[in-house]
Specification:
Layout: E1 7-10, E2 13-16, E3 19-23, E4 26-32, E5 42-45, E6 48-56, E7 61-65, E8 85-89, E9 94-103, E10 107-112, E11 126-129, E12 132-141, E13 146-151, H1 152-158
Antiparallel strand pairs: 1-2, 3-4, 4-7, 5-6, 6-7, 8-9, 8-11, 9-10, 10-13, 11-12, 12-13
């Protein structure tokens, strides 16, 4: 089953699916685009070879079309609650202490405990509050223990 937080592999490295959405009646998984060279890059998820279908450069997002009939769980999006705790969740780890410091129109600014920071392979992981995805992690600054995520406001705007 393909869902938010599941792993995929690209060039021998693990990546994380941030969300699964329906766009114009077609299933897509979303992750960060900075790990790919561009559209047409190949990746493997659940033994299937897939291709990056689209890149949204303004938001560092990659769309990967899923074949018809693929078992997938559509992501439920929530609205970020500022100054509240959230979690970074993927199928290899969970960071329980992640605080939404600020929420803008397209970005979330996150605070982490300095001893429990996201690692490079956590890029693309869903940020969750109340069981709903509020963003997709794409960047951290180690010296400030801060991170940034694409807001669910942008992700919801992609759904049709």
């Amino acid at each position: 089953m393909i869902k938010a937080g599941s792993s995929f592999f690209h060039n021998g490295k693990r990546g994380t699916i941030g969300a699964v959405i329906v766009l114009k009646g077609v299933l897509y998984m979303i992750t960060v685009s900075h790990i790919f060279r561009g559209e047409g890059d190949r990746l493997t998820v659940n033994g299937m070879e897939l291709v990056v279908t689209g890149i949204l450069k303004d938001y560092d997002l990659a769309l990967i079309e899923l074949p018809s009939g693929t078992a997938a769980e559509i992501t439920e999006f929530g609205s970020p609650a500022e100054l509240e705790l959230a979690e970074l969740i993927n199928d290899t780890r969970t960071i329980h202490y992640c605080r939404v410091v600020n929420s803008g129109a397209s970005l979330l600014f996150l605070g982490f405990q300095c001893h429990d920071m996201p690692e490079p392979e956590d890029s693309g992981s869903p940020i969750v509050q109340g069981g709903k995805v509020i963003g997709i992690m794409y960047s951290v600054t180690l010296d400030t223990c801060m991170g940034m995520a694409v807001s669910s406001k942008i992700l919801r705007s992609l759904e049709v």
